[in-house]
Design brief:
Chain lengths: 503, 312
């Protein structure tokens, strides 16, 4: 708005200047034309005087009256020629004065020379001829002609001066006009630069800072140099960045606190379970010893054996519980060793470990086409082992069927372990991944309820997730996702164990 | 933004003004034609137009009459240095002039075509006056001085050729005469010299009045036409040749004036006569010399004389 108005004003000014230039050229041409006219009129008048003198001399010398005709004509015409010239130089006081002198000289010449000579000649030609020998007429005519010379010189000077002045004025006006146009351009450029500098640049600075902030550089701030809306924007940005930085600091603090308490807890669990194992082992040992001695003592004392069996069973159960607890605890603390591993090999390992159970249950295990994944071989083996083991365990029939497949999903591989087992109700599908959560009594299905919790931990550590889809009485499908080996960059997104300690 | 815009406007305005100012200065003030001055109030009578012939004594006479008349309250327009008697008199007849001082003898011989003029100056004056009155003019009272035309030679030339009189000139071989050009055709000139003194076809040099004495001095001419009231003739530097047969008339000056003008302004005659009465030969010689030799202007010389005579 400001720019366009300013440009319009200056453009108008420049146009005015150019118009002035053209006008002064036109005026110069006009005055030059008037001066040319004045020169022509002056020459005509001067020529009339010369015609008079020549005709007069011709008449007096020859006595031929006819030679007087041009004289008479010129004497009749010169007053109007003089008036014409007077009109053409009327604007110039100097020229008017010169013409007045010329007019006086002409009057003298006509009244005091031409007419008297004609008068004398009409009476006495011989006497008139003697007058022609004098310089009187010549001098008068010379006076007139020098007057004309001054008039013409002045008129030509006036033409030249006007031409010069008009040219200098028009060239000055053209200079100013072009200068004005240049000024318009300069102001436009200046205004653009001003806009860039005062608006675009601050906005870009804030945008830039926003990018850096988004990339995680919470220390980014923009300078607040102004008092206007852009200043407000900068201050707003800075306070937003401040608040983000404060939030992050708060988060980090509570995070580290959580990690610490988690670590303490795990330490406690680990120590507790380890320490528990020792006395339990001792109990178990003594119980066996007692059983052996009783056996050696004789069958009559057999009634006590039931008790001992009970102790031994309870102890074994406690040991299994503690072993699983340890395993779960370790699953959360170990260091992952990521490698590109063919999933088929991992599954193979897992099935080997489950060989006894497979044989016992007579399960049919189907393994589909499996990809190479990026993961810790031992931990992943544990996952497959637990899931396939569960699939065989919670079964209704004699010959359970289990299949292991993989499909790509969202850039990762989704593994599915499918069974034809007892299934579960939808409301239980979340609970089962928590440690020691069992859906059934130990009398129905043995186990400590830690297996799926361990799986959840390991999958989470690999950046994947685990879930179950199930229909009671028909079977379950356990899914989990793992990054493929082709996506080595995934490792970057998988924080190492210490950072994930609390997850 | 609003604030910076407010700052921008005065700056733009200043730029615009700065750009415009030099143009304003460039324009020239157009001269307005000066208002015509109001015409001077017409006097009761048109100005008296006085003319003079083309030599010093006439210039002085013109100034004398013009200044004296102006002092008496007359309106005078002086047109000096017109030309010979023939031209000036014709201008008078043409109605361009009202008055000019003329030599009575010249008037009779060169204007009135009366070469055989009366012997006495009084008769000549009366004849000339009658001639003028036939044309609507008249002669006023003649001046006391007489300015006779004459021929002069250097003393050296006079001695070499034993020349004392115009009659002696016919003996000089290859005689050269310098004079104003009208001398060639006048009776009181080459015509009369031949007729009265037998000087037949001498070589003639037309000379302006101021070139006559230098031409004599340099030897360009043997003889030059002079006037007896010229101060150069004092001090025996030149020999004025005798005119035993009276070729050159005794020349008193009388103003020729229009009778109509005289009638219209009755006090005019007395005013002019008062000037003429003071013009003695001695006075004229002094005044002519002051102009020709002392390079003073006729106007100054006339003013000084009129003042000394109590006419201004």
């Amino acid at each position: 708005m400001t720019l366009s108005v300013a440009a319009a004003v200056l453009l108008g000014l420049a146009l005015v200047l150019l118009i002035v230039a053209v006008t002064s050229q036109r005026d110069a041409a006009r005055t030059a034309f008037a001066s040319q006219e004045a020169l022509a009129a002056g020459s005509q008048l001067e020529n009339s005087m010369i015609t008079i003198e020549n005709g007069l001399r011709g008449y007096v010398a020859s006595g031929q009256k006819r030679l007087l005709a041009p004289v008479t004509t010129a004497l009749g015409s010169y007053p109007s020629e003089r008036r014409n010239l007077a009109r053409l130089v009327s604007h110039d006081p100097g020229q008017r004065r010169r013409l007045a002198q010329i007019s006086a000289a002409i009057q003298d010449y006509v009244e005091l020379w031409v007419e008297p000579v004609i008068g004398v000649a009409n009476l006495n030609l011989r006497r008139a001829r003697s007058q022609l020998l004098t310089n009187t007429g010549r001098e008068r005519l010379d006076g007139i002609r020098s007057g004309f010379a001054r008039l013409f010189e002045r008129e030509r000077a006036v033409i030249a001066a006007r031409q010069n002045r008009a040219e200098s004025r028009s060239s000055r006006a053209i200079t100013f006009g072009i200068g004005g146009l240049a000024l318009v351009v300069a102001i436009a450029i200046g205004f653009t630069l001003y806009l860039r500098r005062s608006i675009v640049r601050p906005v870009l600075t804030v945008a830039d800072a926003t990018d850096r902030l988004a990339a995680g550089d919470l220390d980014t701030r923009v300078p607040v140099e102004r008092d206007d809306e852009l200043g407000t924007l900068a201050r707003g940005f800075n306070s937003m960045a401040d608040s983000l930085a404060r939030g992050r600091a708060e988060l980090e603090r509570s995070n580290s606190e959580l990690s610490r308490s988690n670590a303490e807890l795990e330490q406690f669990a680990s120590v507790t379970s380890h320490d528990l194992q020792a006395p339990l082992t001792t109990i178990s040992m003594y119980t066996e010893l007692l059983e052996r001695r009783r056996a050696a003592a004789g069958p009559d004392s057999g009634g006590d054996l039931d008790l001992v069996d009970g102790i031994r069973a309870a102890t074994g159960q406690a040991r299994a519980l503690i072993r699983d607890l340890l395993e779960y605890s370790r699953a959360g603390r170990g260091t992952l060793e990521l490698d590109a591993v063919p999933a088929a090999r991992i599954v193979e390992d897992a099935l080997e470990r489950l060989a006894g159970q497979i044989e016992e249950t007579g399960a049919q295990i189907t393994v589909g086409e499996l990809p190479t994944v990026l993961g810790d071989r031992a931990n992943l083996c544990r996952v497959f082992q637990n899931l396939v083991g569960n699939a065989m365990k919670f079964t209704r029939e004699e010959n359970p069927r289990v299949s292991v497949d993989a499909e790509p999903e969202d850039g990762m591989w989704r593994f599915a372990i499918r069974d034809n087992g007892i299934g579960m109700k939808p409301e239980h599908t979340e609970r089962i991944f928590k440690p020691f959560q069992r859906l059934h009594g130990e009398e129905d299905y043995e186990g400590t309820g830690i297996g799926l919790a361990v799986c959840e931990r390991i999958v989470s550590q690999h950046g994947g997730r685990i879930w179950v889809s199930s229909t009671p009485g028909e079977g379950s499908v356990f899914y989990f996702t793992i990054a493929g080996a082709e996506r080595a960059d995934v490792t970057l997104q998988v924080p190492q164990a210490p950072a994930r300690a609390g997850a | 933004m609003a604030r910076s815009r407010r700052r921008l406007w005065p700056a733009l305005l200043a730029i615009a003004v700065a750009a415009a100012v030099p143009i304003g200065c460039g324009g020239d003030a157009n001269d307005k034609p000066r208002a015509a001055s109001p015409t001077a109030t017409q006097p009761a009578h048109p100005p008296i137009r006085i003319g003079t012939k083309n030599f010093t004594e006439e210039f002085v006479l013109g100034e004398l009459y013009a200044q004296a008349l102006r002092a008496k309250g007359f309106d005078v327009k002086l047109r000096s240095n017109i030309g010979s008697s023939e031209i000036t008199h014709q201008a008078l007849l043409n109605g361009v002039l009202d008055m000019y001082p003329e030599y009575v003898g010249t008037l009779l011989s060169e204007v009135a075509d009366m070469p055989n003029r009366p012997a006495s100056t009084a008769a000549s004056y009366a004849l000339a006056k009658r001639f003028e009155e036939r044309h609507g003019f008249t002669l006023l009272a003649p001046t006391p001085f007489s300015d006779d035309e004459a021929l002069a030679v250097t003393p050296k030339f006079a001695a070499e050729h034993d020349v004392r009189s115009l009659a002696d000139l016919k003996r000089v071989p290859r005689l050269t005469i310098g004079a104003p050009s009208e001398f060639q055709a006048r009776f009181e000139g080459l015509v009369g010299l031949d007729e009265f003194y037998g000087v037949h076809k001498p070589r003639f040099f037309p000379l302006d009045f101021d070139k006559r004495y230098p031409a004599l001095n340099s030897g360009k001419v043997d003889v030059a036409a002079v006037f007896t009231t010229e101060r150069q003739l004092t001090g025996h530097r030149y020999v004025v040749l005798a005119d035993p047969r009276g070729l050159f008339a005794v020349q008193h000056v009388a103003p020729i004036i229009s009778k109509k003008v005289l009638a219209a302004q009755p006090r005019l005659r007395a005013a002019i006569d008062a000037v003429s009465a003071k013009l003695t030969t001695q006075a004229m010689r002094r005044m002519n010399g002051a102009v020709d030799l002392d390079r003073r202007t006729p106007r100054e010389v006339a003013t000084q004389f009129l003042t000394s005579q109590g006419l201004l």
